[in-house]
Amino acid sequence: MNSSTIEIPAELLPADGRFGCGPSKVREEQVDALVAARGTILGTSHRQQAVKDVVGRVRSGLATLFDLPAGWEILLGNGGSTMFWDAATFGLIDTRSQHLTFGEFSSKFAEAALSAPHLENPDVISAPPGDHPVARACDSIDTYALTHNETSTGVAMHLERPDGARADSLVIVDATSAAGGLSWTPSEVDVYYFAPQKSFAADGGLWLAACSPLAIERIERLASSDRWRPASLDLGIALTNSRLNQTYNTPALATLVMLENQIEWMLQNGGMPWVTQRVTTSAKTMYSWADARAFATPFVTDPSKRSSVVATIDISDDIDATTINAVLRTNGIVDTDSYRKLGRNQLRIGMFPAVDPSDIEALTACIDFVVERLHS
Fold first, then answer.
1. Domain with 54 in it: what CATH number?
2. Handedness of CA 150, 151, 156, 159 (dihedral sign)
3. 25: Cβ–Cβ under 8 A, 6 or more apart, which residues?
4. Fewer Cβ close by (within 10 Å): the C or N end of the chain?
5. Is 264 helix (H, G, I), strand (E, B) or coil?
6. Are residues 373 and 6 in contact, defined by beta-carbon separation less than 8 angstroms?
7. 50 occurs within a structural domain
8. pTM value?
9. Based on the domain organization, do 93 and 232 belong to the same domain?
10. 296-298 vs 206-211, strand pairing mode
11. How many domains does the chain have?
């Protein structure tokens, strides 16, 4: 059958056809919150109390959501996770870092540390896409850089301190596609940083970081040193401004409004226990479906390493995943494409908290319908 003529019956379609891995689906209530803020916050100075109150609620809401211990602080700044990698080379890594790389995004922080002239060459431990490596303690390492969820491959890792690591070493975690979706334990981590365009369903261009007292101490020490750093990448400046519920330079207020609304939605429904159960339900549906199909296979072979927020599903060689994606898109189901640089015949499905688990179930039925028509 000509793929351009395939029409999926309305009764099979999900209520919402957005399954992107970032930016992710934005709930209608978040857009309503933007409309409600049009006369009070949007288009006003970020130094005014109304905006500071939003930032304050974001910071306190995240502290509650993550159940942070006393002494932890939420920092924020402009530029997203990419900017935070650069800031960390100035304000978190003391001398030498170790990086676990197992996909496109986890490798970028390692590259930033390698190119920083004031740091020693990092220790980089790699694993092929579809797997993840394990950190190893080393006396020369003062910063261990982990990734909670590799967005490009759908691999998630359990976060824990390397056994035998120095007492003063930091564990810093890129949690961009994991934060607000996957659980973690603060005692195993010192910096948990992310951008809000995945589980928090806001726009990009902002970074947030939950920081332990040990991390705050490192930030303050390096900020008071003679190490040169641009002001926009100075975590000491970010810390000072965050304590005032503001950013060093003008943030995107719309992002903050949507982020606040998403945090409030999560907390009202039960916080992280509710969130993790919601995404786990979606993940079980997606992976069970793939396991039961002759034409589909979960890319991540080890079930314990499969992400509950990003599913990567390999499609058999006799079916073009690009064609499946194109048919889905013409029927209003969007952003199921694989990560371009991975180069696999694959679907990649965002299962972030805003995505209703019933829509994941509907998606699997739609894929079945499309594949059956392509083979007819």
1. 3.40.640.10
2. positive
3. 16, 18, 19, 201, 350, 352, 354, 355
4. C
5. helix
6. yes
7. yes
8. 0.96
9. yes
10. unpaired
11. 2
The whole-number pLDDT of residue 340 equals 84
Write the DSSP string, 106-128.
HHHHHHHHHH-TTSPPPEEEE--
The token pair that represents 142 in the structure block: 């003062």
Closest alpha carbon to 177 in 353, 362, 361: 353
What letter represents residue 303's amino acid? P
Q: How far is CA 49 from CA 52, 244, 246, 260, in A?
A: 5, 10, 10, 16
pLDDT, tens digit (0-9, with 9 covering 90-100), for 68-99: 999 999 999 999 899 999 999 999 999 999 99
Q: Which residues of the chain have pLDDT under 70?
A: 1-2
Q: Which domain holds residue 338?
A: 13-26+271-375
Residue 115: name the closest of 144, 149, 90 by CA.
90
Q: What is the pLDDT of residue 2?
A: 65
- Residue 260's φ and ψ, nearest 5 degrees, are -60, -40
Instruction: Assess whether 297 and 234 both reside in one domain.
Output: no
- What is the rounded CA–CA span in Å between residue 216 and residue 220? 6
pLDDT tens digits for 17-43?
999 997 899 999 999 999 999 989 988
Nearest alpha-carbon partner for 28 in 201, 168, 216: 201
Q: Which helix (H) or strand (E) holds 350?
A: strand 346-350
Q: Tokens in use for 353? A: 């908290």
Tokens describing residue 269: 């429904």
Written as six digits, the tokens of 117 are 């002239």
Name residues whose C-beta falls within 8 Å of residue 158's C-beta, 6 or more positions apart in sequence: 304
User: Token match 């688990």: residue?
Assistant: 357
- Sheet of strand 206-211: strand arrangement: 73-78, 206-211, 191-194, 170-174, 143-147, 97-101, 123-126
